[in-house]
Amino acid sequence: MKNKKIKNIKEIKSIVGRLKGLKKKVVFTNGCFDILHVGHIRYLKKARSLGDILVVGLNTDRSVREIKGEKRPIVPQDERAEVLSTLEFVDYVVLFDDPDPLSLIKEIKPNLLVKGADWTKDKIIGRDVVERAGGRVARVPLVPGASSTGVIEKILQAYCRG
Questions:
Q1: CB 119 within 8 A of CB 24
Q2: Residue 71's closest CA among 81, 83, 61?
Q3: How far apart are CA 65 and CA 49, in angstroms?
Q4: Distance between CA 120 and CA 11 in Å, rounded?
Q5: Residue 88: left if φ>0, alpha if ψ -120 to 50, beta else—which one?
Q6: Segment 30-68, tens digit of pLDDT
């Protein structure tokens, strides 16, 4: 059975175009979302509250390895996509194979691009594309201490180093 929320780039471009035509505010964010934790949940929920539709760009396994190193991701891309798609505040998930989402952002031109507050506005990839298209960028506060790397480190300390 095909998951109705997981789309390819061609499908999401068409969907976003239709939704924007209906005056829906499309919010886009992206990430690896490896080992989903409370920081991810609060971040995604906040991102969705800023518009009508939340599209989550998800790094493929290959691009996660390029960003995080050969030992990541822990959870394969299809499983990460499925988990994200079960969240009620995530409307669509689209996998992308580049280390950054610029090509995807250029394709869909969301109304709002959301990143974590750890990103300075001038470093947010795709900001210029979104703003040129009349959209805007928002930064969402992070949950202190919540990170996939932190979860992995806790597991290692508890089970491998102790």
A1: no
A2: 61
A3: 31
A4: 31
A5: alpha
A6: 999 998 999 999 999 999 999 999 999 999 999 999 999
* CA atoms 55, 60, 63, 69: torsion sign: positive
- Angle at alpha carbon of residue 36, lines to 112 and 74, rounded to 5°: 120
Six-digit token pair at 149? 């790397």
Kindly state the tokens that stand for 71.
Answer: 């030992």
What's the whole-model pTM score? 0.93
Contacts of 96 (CB under 8 A, 6+ apart): 9, 30, 57, 58, 59, 60, 63, 103, 104
Cα 52 to Cα 157: distance, rounded to the nearest angstrom? 41
CA distances from 161 to 123, 133, 140, 144, 145 (A): 36, 51, 34, 24, 20
Of the candidates 86, 4, 90, the residue with the CA atom closest to the CA atom of residue 45 = 90
Domain ranges, ordered by start, for the chain = 6-159
Q: Domain 6-159 adopts which CATH fold?
A: Rossmann fold (3.40.50)
Q: Give dist(CA 130, CA 111) in Å, integer.
A: 7
Sign, CA dihedral 56-57-62-68, equals: negative
